[in-house]
From TrEMBL:
InterPro entries: Ceramide-binding_SVF1, Svf1-like_C, Svf1-like_N
Protein name per UniProt: BZ3500_MvSof-1268-A1-R1_Chr2-2g05127 protein
Cellular compartment(s): Cytoplasm
Major subcellular location class: cytoplasm
Record has Cytoplasm as a keyword: yes
GO BP, one annotated term: response to oxidative stress
Family membership: Belongs to the SVF1 family.
Origin: domain of life: Eukaryota
Svf1-like N-terminal domain sequence ranges: 46-225
Keywords recorded for this protein, A-Z: Cytoplasm
A single GO cellular-component term on record: cytoplasm
């Protein structure tokens, strides 16, 4: 899962979504070193680093570090892993408590971390590569490298790039080129940073199986919820589409969406990116106050008796934004408002018939969020009466329709990992 998702009524009066803080021509924000450094803040802050990969055969690999601070208590830190093989129906899920967690070290900066259970390292001389070594138990061990094939991004450049602020908006306290501004909202903030297209290789040891990973593709996301976890969002959507390494299409479509809680106006914030030919061609945004852009649309909803939610029978994801051109530090949006790149995935999910229990194609798991939250964090979360948050996760082969200037429309085959989270 992408983060912890919870709900209660906050008291903050205002909300400043990142999607409305930047003009369309300023959506692309290059990452600086501080963006992917561990913050490890106190108070009530949940920070995650999540690594996704899909293989040529459609397998899913996910590993994640979750750092959850709860008031004055020592942080709860979890190291999770998921492997799904739709062909063999093999599904491995592991979550282990982390001990002796530290960041940085000799010749390393705060992008690197280690514990008794793992090391996740960025060599400062190769800042586009993560090396992951992990041992969940004697049955589950991983050794992976993630190499960014495109520049990373956040929505908007500068200290407030990527930041959605909750509560009264404060004047900027940092200048361009300085670390992220974490104090812009009186009540807190939420931020996501992305490596949208990575090359992954390595080895998984799952029981007696040794799985060699070659030419997988995926994404890395560093996310922080800088506020009490029970006041941020009432719903989330996430999509990660990757075309295989073979075939030369080099397409990755990434989307993250949340809806703020009612006391913050129930505002929808959607951010995403389009990669074509292993090049970042657009950073997009959508939500309240923005026409078009990036949208996750649930339709043909069916009541799921097990969870009580009206779950989607299908989800249509769309991306649209100004085309980027150039390389590295010279990556810039087109000066022409007609230079638009777009993409669409229409994921049909429902397999059950009317009157039958809700069933869908490619369902990986319905995650009971309360069952996953560490004890101390759960203790401090006040849920509305009867609320039981669930995350639906799916893994499916799909077709993506991609349109870029000068290339026309192309249909690209790939694998989509998606999440829909219901909180209230």
């Amino acid at each position: 899962m992408s983060s912890w998702f919870v709900s209660a009524a906050p008291t903050g009066p205002n909300f400043a979504g990142v999607h409305r803080n930047f003009a369309q021509e300023a959506f692309y924000g290059p990452l600086v070193q501080e963006d992917t450094e561990w913050l490890c803040a106190g108070g009530f802050v949940t920070e995650t680093q999540t690594f996704y990969a899909t293989t040529e055969q459609g397998e899913l690999i996910m590993c994640q570090v979750i750092h959850s601070s709860v008031g004055v208590w020592y942080p709860s830190i979890q190291f999770t892993f998921r492997y799904v093989n739709p062909t063999t129906s093999k599904h491995v899920w592991k979550s282990t408590a982390v001990t002796n967690f530290t960041v940085g070290g000799a010749k390393l900066d705060k992008r690197s971390s280690k514990s008794d259970q793992f090391t996740i390292t960025v060599d400062p001389s190769k800042p586009n590569v993560y090396t992951i070594q992990g041992k969940y138990d004697d049955e589950t061990q991983i050794s992976l490298t993630y190499e960014a094939l495109t520049p990373g991004w956040k929505l908007g450049a500068g200290p407030r790039g990527g930041m959605s602020y909750f509560g009264q908006l404060k004047p900027a306290t940092t200048q361009p080129g300085t670390p992220p501004d974490l104090s812009g909202g009186a009540d807190g903030y939420c931020v996501h940073r992305f490596w949208p297209r990575c090359a992954i290789k390595g080895i998984l040891r799952l029981g007696t199986d040794v799985i060699q990973i070659e030419d997988a593709r995926g994404t890395f996301i560093h996310a922080i919820q800088g506020m009490r976890p029970n006041v941020l969002a009432s719903a989330w959507n996430f999509a990660n589409f990757q075309s295989p390494a073979s075939g030369g299409e080099g397409v990755a479509l990434t989307m993250m969406e949340f809806t703020s809680c009612p006391a913050y106006g129930s505002h929808k914030v959607n951010i995403g990116s389009i990669v074509v030919g292993d090049k970042l061609v657009a950073v997009v945004a959508g939500g309240d106050g923005i026409q078009g852009g990036s949208v996750a649309l649930h339709y043909e909803a069916v009541n799921d008796v097990e969870t009580g939610y009206d779950a989607p029978g299908a989800i249509k994801y769309t991306w649209e934004g100004l085309t980027l051109s150039g390389e590295g530090d010279n990556l810039k949006p087109s000066a022409s408002s007609n230079d638009i790149s777009s993409a669409e995935i229409d994921q049909k999910l429902l397999t059950s018939k009317p009157g039958e229990p809700y069933a869908t194609q490619g369902l990986v798991e319905k995650v009971d969020v309360l069952g996953q939250i560490p004890y101390l964090l759960k203790k401090f979360v006040n849920y509305a009466a009867g609320t039981k948050p669930y995350i639906y996760t799916w893994l499916n082969p799909v077709d993506a329709k991609v349109v870029t200037p000068g290339q026309g429309v192309k249909t690209v085959k790939g694998t989509l990992f998606s999440e829909a989270t219901f909180v209230s």
